[in-house]
Automatic annotation (TrEMBL):
Pfam family membership, one: MFS_1
Record-linked PROSITE patterns: MFS (PS50850)
Recorded GO MF terms: transmembrane transporter activity
Compartments, as annotated in UniProt: Cell membrane
Bilayer topology: Multi-pass membrane protein
Subcellular location, principal: membrane
One cellular component (GO) term of this entry: plasma membrane
This protein's name: Drug resistance transporter, EmrB/QacA subfamily
Membrane-traversing stretches: 18-41, 53-72, 84-110, 116-134, 146-165, 171-192, 204-224, 230-252, 273-297, 309-331, 338-357, 363-385, 406-429, 470-488
Organism of origin: Devosia crocina
UniProt entry keywords in alphabetical sequence: Cell membrane, Membrane, Transmembrane, Transmembrane helix, Transport
Signal sequence region: none
Domain spans labelled Major facilitator superfamily (MFS) profile: 19-493
InterPro entries: MFS, MFS_dom, MFS_trans_sf
């Protein structure tokens, strides 16, 4: 198939700009929901107690938002994006208010779970709305801009959280979502048309339950394994066994469902499989880098948590700039295969350079390495969403979009867990019994600074050395992702809103479509 000779033209819907703005706001809401709470956790624990449950404030949101992503994608396909997106925003805001009202750590964890149930829908349905109003050729630069929103939230979230808890109360890190959420609700209500048809639908309840249960067990196993419980413990083995059984039952149920949550036909689509495999591996590398780089900066360079967040700016500049650039390239050329090939190669280079960092590596070099990592990550997300939406039929575009989010977040969850285990075992092997009793596990700048100088130097050297295999492992995942990009089939991006892939439409349907020749109407 030859590519179109002219660039895509912008859609002519009067409300398009409003909808894109509302989608950007909802994506910002979902992204901030993940990142803004991190710097406020010490203050929250100081008031509510429950230090042993600290990580669950983060895990609860990640878990619930990951589990519901495919459910929201399918519900959007069945009932239209507008109503499903509005429901997701309302659930997210309810969770935010409950979080602000929390008087105990247990209640806060519950509230964060509710907030995640809405946050998972914000990401998936918002990105799918774009598929309803923007042709695939034009969609590339929009997805690139949305990638920039995620990048901004990654840096702005922790900084904003730090400013809020320093000058106001921690409750405002949740209440700040309210005006943004209300604004998004109002704009969506005005700009996005409701679905016109009222077709009776068949709900795949077994699929919902089995997928949610399987993903819950899987994310819990990867989040708790090596931290709360040993990988070989009965708890982790039981969670993994339950996940395997539930996901196996899910495959069986989907093969028989009238309206499957995640249609198995998607796994016969080259673009869906290859894009999500690459996204899974890049998700591992991305979350692993973001998790361990601040630790390196705070300990090796002796800077504060806020300063370490600022030091991540080069990575975000690379991510935002190259993600936006790749979107414009897709719109201009109608092609996308070469973008993840180049970006994953750049990611390999950046991660290998990070793997060779030493305690005395100059700050400007670390910044350059982080820029390369960000540049390598940026195009993958925008390309995978755009390419997948272009390659699947209209009736499953929501489920397919949810799949891209699902696999990326699962990859991130596994990456953090695996890299954490690699780092912990490497550090333990290098330290041995050299640190004073009771201090080997107190790995924070204050505890390390309090050590005698010879011990402190040895601990810092061990810390830097233990990070090397982490980044090398991330680089290996990026190598595999780079190899997989060569198996991606490229379909020229369409200039119209019609999204049924050409290869999947039979001759009679193609002839009918050619005779009609009208683009789809925005009814979602």
């Amino acid at each position: 198939m030859s590519e179109p000779s002219q660039p895509a033209t912008a859609p002519e819907h009067q409300s398009t700009r409003l909808v894109i703005g509302a989608v950007a706001v909802t994506l910002l809401l979902a992204s901030l929901g993940q990142t803004i709470v991190s710097t406020a956790l010490p203050v929250i624990v100081g008031q509510l107690g429950g230090l042993d449950h600290l990580t669950w404030v983060v895990i609860a949101y990640l878990l619930s938002s990951t589990v519901v992503a495919p459910v929201y994608g399918k519900l959007g396909d069945l009932y239209g994006r507008k109503i499903v997106l509005q429901v997701a925003i309302v659930i997210f805001l309810v969770g935010a208010v409950l979080s602000a009202l929390a008087s105990s750590m247990t209640f806060l964890i519950f509230a964060r779970t509710v907030q995640g149930l809405g946050g998972g829908g914000l990401m998936v349905v918002a990105m799918t709305v774009v598929a309803d109003i923007i042709p695939p050729r034009q969609r590339g630069k929009i997805q690139g801009l949305f990638g920039a929103v995620f990048g901004v939230a990654t840096v702005v979230g922790p900084l904003l959280g730090g400013v809020i808890v320093e000058h106001f109360s921690w409750q405002w890190i949740f209440l700040i979502n309210l005006p943004l959420g209300v604004l998004a609700l109002v704009v969506i209500a005005v700009a996005l048309k409701p679905r016109a048809d009222r077709v009776q639908r068949s709900i795949d309840y077994p699929g919902f339950v089995l997928l949610s249960g399987g993903l819950t067990a899987f994310v819990l196993a990867t989040s708790l394994g090596g931290n709360t419980f040993a990988w070989g413990s009965i708890e982790i083995i039981g969670l993994i066994a339950f996940a395997v059984l539930a996901l196996g039952g899910f495959v069986w149920a989907e093969a028989r469902a009238k309206e499957p949550v995640l249609p198995l036909s998607l796994f016969r689509n080259n673009t869906f499989v290859v894009s999500n495999s690459v996204g899974f591996l890049v998700g591992m590398a991305m979350f692993g880098s973001i998790t361990f780089l601040p630790m390196y900066l705070q300990l090796a360079k002796g800077i504060s948590p806020t300063e370490s967040a600022l030091q991540l700016v080069p990575m975000m500049v690379g991510l935002i700039g190259v993600s936006t650039l790749s979107g414009f390239i897709m719109t201009r050329t109608g092609r996308y295969k070469i973008l993840p090939q180049i970006s994953t190669f750049v990611l390999i280079v950046g991660l290998v350079l990070l793997a060779n960092m030493q305690l005395d590596t100059p700050a400007w070099q670390v910044a350059a390495f982080m820029f390369l990592v960000g540049a390598g990550i940026g195009p993958v997300n925008s390309v995978s969403v755009t390419a997948t939406q272009n390659a699947v039929p209209l009736e499953v575009v929501g489920a397919a979009t949810a799949g891209t989010t699902l696999f990326r977040q699962i990859g991130g969850s596994i990456g953090v867990s695996v890299f954490g285990a690699i780092f912990a075992s490497g550090l333990a092997a290098r330290l041995g019994d050299a640190t004073p009793a009771g201090q080997s596990g107190s790995f924070n700048p204050q505890a390390v600074a309090a050590l005698p100088e010879p011990v402190r130097n040895m601990v810092l050297e061990a810390f830097a050395s233990a990070l090397h295999p982490v980044f090398y492992t991330a680089a290996a995942a990026a190598v595999l992702a780079f190899c997989l990009t060569f198996f991606l089939e490229e379909r020229p991006l369409a200039n119209t809103l019609r999204r049924e892939p050409e290869a999947e439409v039979d001759a009679e349907e193609a002839a009918t479509a050619a005779a009609v020749g009208a683009p789809a109407t925005v009814t979602r």
